[in-house]
TrEMBL record, chain A:
Substrate binds at residues 221, 351. SUPFAM superfamilies: alpha/beta-Hydrolases. This is Homoserine O-succinyltransferase. Homodimer. It catalyses: L-homoserine + succinyl-CoA = O-succinyl-L-homoserine + CoA. Gene3D superfamilies: 1.10.1740.110, alpha/beta hydrolase. HAMAP family: MetX_acyltransf (MF_00296). InterPro entries: AB_hydrolase_1, AB_hydrolase_fold, HAT_MetX-like.
UniProtKB/TrEMBL annotation, chain B:
InterPro entries: Methionine_synth_MetW (IPR010743), SAM-dependent_MTases_sf (IPR029063). This is Methionine biosynthesis protein MetW. It comes from Roseateles amylovorans. Pfam families: MetW. The lineage of its organism: Bacteria, Pseudomonadati, Pseudomonadota, Betaproteobacteria, Burkholderiales.
Length: 390, 194
């Protein structure tokens, strides 16, 4: 199994305004896109990979000359990997409102000449999916072999299957939910309040003040991080380990290793993530609820679906528990859809969807191999050796 | 369901084009066969990771669930046929599962080892729990936590309000209709709700 190697993102400009769910429109926006593998002749081997909260278009491979720049799903996507780039043409798109190159709160608002900041419109999962559909139009891809996503990415995959059912063959939704629970929304709200009440937030226009609400972002990330791990993994990794043998009798200093770990994660995150983007994305999560338009009836919601589904959950994921995935599966069963469901007994909690558990990757590999039998292989210029190695 | 002949025998009970739920579908062999040979659709339910993977490799829809937790995910009468082949004897809540099978499917087909097969009776008479090809485990390590007989099932079926449409024993890949409780190591029942 290899890496897709060095990859270069493309910046696509869209001048036709995109109508957003909120009623706002956004025009002259840019989306960052990366692709891996080759598109076959009839453009039937494309897989869209949707990213989760803090990721981007950089799904696999490395950026030339940048250390530790492997894409966030590099263990899954590549030559000979479960999502095999010798067979599939894989597309990663950075969502609108993100802070990784696509038009977002850090960009200039053409209407005011001022950085968007808090003026950036609230975007929803549906808006992202609509923007992604335009990227496919740009590539001339009418129908995707599959849409794949984990967590918030899984919500996008589900939304794809509900609103563009004829534009995809398979929906692969991992570690996700048909909507957020009150507890999920509560965690998001705590994270948002941490950011908004940071004295350096300046109502979202902190860029103009030359400061960053790092404290708020740190706390937001710490909260989030706790929910991504399972109690068992945290216990195993950190337990009650102390930094020193003696109690320090301090409430400010780091005493326990878990504190050190959370602070490290928070610090790292606050250096690269944008506060307004965090607010927007957590809100998009809160809003996602496709059944809302169907009186809360998830079975009726999935009546419009007609692709095939693979749903995957992890037993220790308490943020998006298996019970939430089973709700999706039930709705699909009620509509007699083709669906497979794997409930992976992994210890890692929600984060498991990013790790390479052999049972999890085995199921994905088998499923993608099945999809690959449905279309012609990529262009003949494909190096044969790579296929043999796979 | 490794025995090809038994698989064919069970498949013959399933109407062509039926929507099938196979509870404890193993590697999905029977479902794949029903799809290819009889145009059936449906799902397997399986708990074991390796079997779930095998189903995915075969292109069979599989839902990873623990049958002990019930079939709440499936609606009433949502399948033409519910199969429960050599799984009932591994489940704690046998009676509840049987009722659930009849709730979810318009027709049910179950198979299980017949404890009353004559070699088993001999071994019990000799004072030992039977160990045979169909019941290959010692009493202390068997996954078969419910050992019943062909005759016992008829009683349970009646209690659960099931109407037996067909039943027979299976021995050496052949159906046994004469004294199946004595002559067959495996029992097969096809039923619907009264």
């Amino acid at each position: 199994m290899g890496s897709v190697g060095d990859v270069t993102p493309q910046r696509l400009l869209f001048d036709e305004a995109l109508p957003l769910r909120s009623g706002a429109r956004i025009s002259d926006y840019e989306l960052m896109v990366e692709t891996y593998g080759r598109l076959n002749e009839d453009k039937s081997n494309a897989v869209l990979v949707c990213h989760a909260l803090n990721a981007s278009h950089h799904v696999a491979g490395t950026h030339a000359g940048v250390e530790k720049s492997e894409g966030w799903w590099d263990n899954l996507v590549g030559p000979g990997k479960p999502l095999d780039t010798d067979k599939f043409f894989v597309i990663g798109i950075n969502n609108l409102g993100s802070c990784f190159g696509s038009t977002g709160p850090m960009h200039l608002n053409p209407e005011t000449g001022r950085v968007y900041g808090a003026d950036f419109p609230v975007v929803t999962v549906q808006d992202w999916v609509d923007a992604q559909a335009r990227v496919l139009d740009r590539f001339g891809i009418r129908k995707l072999a599959a849409v794949l996503g984990g967590s918030l990415g899984g919500m996008q995959a589900l939304d794809w299957s509900l609103r563009y059912p004829d534009r995809m063959g398979h929906c692969i939704a991992v570690a996700t939910a048909p909507n957020l629970s009150a507890q999920n929304i509560a965690f998001n709200e705590v994270a948002r309040r941490a950011i908004i009440t940071d004295p350096e937030f300046h109502d979202g226009f902190f860029y103009e003040h030359g400061v960053l609400p790092r404290r708020g972002l740190r706390v937001a990330r710490m909260i989030g991080h706790i929910t991504y791990l399972s109690d068992d993994v945290m216990e195993e990794k950190f337990g009650r380990q102390m930094r020193s043998a003696e109690l320090g009798y301090s409430t400010h200093d780091i005493e326990f290793q878990i504190e050190s770990y959370l602070r490290y994660q928070g610090d790292k995150f606050s250096e690269y993530f944008d506060a307004n983007t965090y607010l927007l994305i957590t809100r998009a999560l809160d809003y996602f609820d496709p059944a809302r338009e169907h009186g809360g009836d998830l079975s009726r919601t999935f009546a419009s679906a007609n692709c095939k589904y693979l749903v995957v959950s992890f037993t220790t994921d308490w943020r998006f528990s298996p019970a939430r995935s089973r709700e999706i599966v039930k709705a699909l069963l009620d509509n007699k859809r083709d669906v497979s469901y794997a409930e992976i007994d992994a210890p890692h909690g929600h984060d498991a969807f990013l790790l390479d558990d052999p049972r999890y990757h085995g199921v994905l590999r088998a499923y993608f191999e099945r999809i690959a039998t449905e279309f012609d292989p990529p262009l003949p210029s494909q190096p044969l050796t790579a296929q043999v190695a796979a | 369901m490794s025995d090809r002949a038994v698989m064919e025998m069970i498949a013959a009970l399933v109407p062509a084009g039926a929507r099938v739920l196979d509870l404890g579908c193993g590697t999905g062999e029977l479902l794949a066969h029903l799809q290819a040979a009889k145009g059936c659709t449906g799902y397997g339910v399986e708990l074991d990771d390796a079997n779930v993977l095998a189903c995915a490799q075969r292109g069979v829809n599989v839902i990873q669930l623990n049958l002990e937790e019930g079939l709440a995910i499936f609606e009433d009468q949502s399948f033409d046929v519910v199969l429960q082949l050599e799984t009932l004897q591994n489940l704690r809540n046998t009676e509840a599962m049987l009722r659930e099978t009849a709730r979810v499917g318009r027709m049910g087909i179950v198979s299980f080892p017949n404890f009353a097969h004559w070699p088993n009776r001999l071994q019990v008479l000799a004072g030992r729990m039977p160990v045979t090809r169909v019941l290959p485990y010692q009493w202390y390590d068997t996954p078969n936590i419910r050992v019943g007989t062909y005759a016992d099932f008829e009683v349970l079926a009646r209690k659960c309000g099931l109407r037996v449409l067909d039943s027979f024993g299976v021995q050496n890949g052949r159906s046994v209709r004469l004294l199946p409780n004595l002559m067959a190591s495996m029992a097969v029942f096809k039923f619907d709700r009264d």
